[in-house]
Amino acid sequence: MRRDQMFPVLEPNEVERLRRFGTVVAYAEGDSLFRAGEIGLGMFIILKGNVAVSRKDALGHAQLIVEEGAGAFLAELNQLSGRPALVDAHAKSAVEALVVPAERLRALLIAEAELGEQIMRALILRRVGLIEEGAGPIIVGRAAQAGVLRMQGFLARNGQPYHHLDPDIDEVARALIEHFHITEAELPIVICPDGQLLRDQSEPELARNIGMVARIDPDRVYDVAIVGAGPAGLANRLTCTQAHFAWTYSGAGLSSSTRVARTNVLSSSVRWFTLAEPRKLLRCSVSRLAFSGEAFRTGGKTPLKNGS
Predict the structure, then answer these.
(1) Rounded-to-integer distance, Cα 239 and Cα 246, Å
(2) For residue 96, with 0-12 CB atoms within 10 Å meaning exposed, 13-18 middle and 19 or more buried, which class applies?
(3) For residue range 251-297, what is the model confidence (pLDDT) as tens digits?
(4) How many angstroms separate the CA atoms of 202 and 281, rounded?
(5) How far apart are the first and last CA of the chain?
(6) Distance separating alpha carbons of residues 261 and 130, to the nearest angstrom
(7) Secondary structure of residue 259 in the 3-state scheme
(8) DSSP 42-71
(9) Residues 52 and 106 both lie in one domain
(10) What is the pTM of this model?
């Protein structure tokens, strides 16, 4: 029953109702629809053909999750926010799919409430399944190490699937340590879904490398910078929304003290972002930002000049 809810098949009339939200794209046999660690196009509704969805284990071997056909949709919670995929999908035959980008997917969930509920239930169950299977980044280190416990807690609090390999009991962990020439002092390490090896144990860097937090684009011009994600920062965000600006969410809010950054785009005229830990990020982020005018601190009304 749970698997039926995790991988439901839409009826032809239901697919037709969703066509207005996407565009049809064709793929040849063997083509990749999306890859783990890369930001995909959005949700795929299969119109013709078959697609295999798989994930890689610690040694890079593909493990089949499901093979889907016409009427199925390929997506996970990350597609709602435009984050990198956690699994791979490739065409087993010639495929025709309706691609619904992230911003249109959110509109779909609201406009088509009945179908939206079915899709959302499937996305949540798929995330639960990935957590149970240990998909996502792989933490290699001893169970009692402080770095391992910290990263496990960080990922668990944010609902991110991960897998832990302990070299004391796992031969694969020992093989990885030998392969990457990791010393005892460098443990733990993290292998990201895109294959990147992360030796830096900082939570912000881990969040950026697995796509939980979007990097601030130095070429984008911002109108408003909200530094701090506490009550005052949230009040300023509310002020922007109450001004009837249309806005789309394009970042990630992280839980507790491990918050890193939020980036938001007001699609009409105001673009703004929030730094949740300004002391950590001011020097590396705000100094590279460009503003269209002057921004003001809410307390002393001190102007922040362009790029300051």
Answers:
(1) 13
(2) middle
(3) 333 333 333 333 343 333 334 444 444 443 333 333 334 444 444 33
(4) 13
(5) 56
(6) 25
(7) coil
(8) SEEEEEES-EEEEEE-TTS-EEEEEEE-TT
(9) yes
(10) 0.64
Sheet (strand 247-249) strand order:
224-227, 271-275, 261-266, 247-249
Q: Judge if 237 and 278 occupy the same domain.
A: yes
pLDDT in tens, 199-227: 866 888 888 888 777 666 667 665 566 66
Closest CA to 160 of 127, 209, 122, 197: 127
Is residue 273 located within the same domain as residue 227? yes
* 225 in any annotated domain: yes
In a domain, 215, yes or no: no
Structure tokens at 211: 């796509």
**Buried/exposed 177-211: b ≥16 CB within 10 Å, e otherwise:** beeeebeeeebbbbbbbeeeebeebebbebbbbbb
Q: Which of 136, 139, 135, 211 is nearest to 182 (CA)?
A: 139
Region of 307 please: left (phi>0), alpha (psi -120 to 50) or beta: left
Q: Indicate the Cα dihedral angle 17, 20, 25, 26, nearest 10°.
A: 40
**Can you read off the two tokens belonging to residue 232?**
């005052």
Are 126 and 14 contained in the same domain? yes
Residues 36 and 83: their CA atoms lie apart, in Å, by: 10
Backbone phi, psi, residue 53, to 5°: -110, 130
Rounded-to-integer distance, Cα 263 and Cα 253, Å: 9
Residue 122, pLDDT > 70, answer yes
- Asked, for residue 262, whether it belongs to a domain, the answer is yes
Range of the domain at 66: 2-133
Q: What 8-state DSSP symbol labels residue 77?
A: G
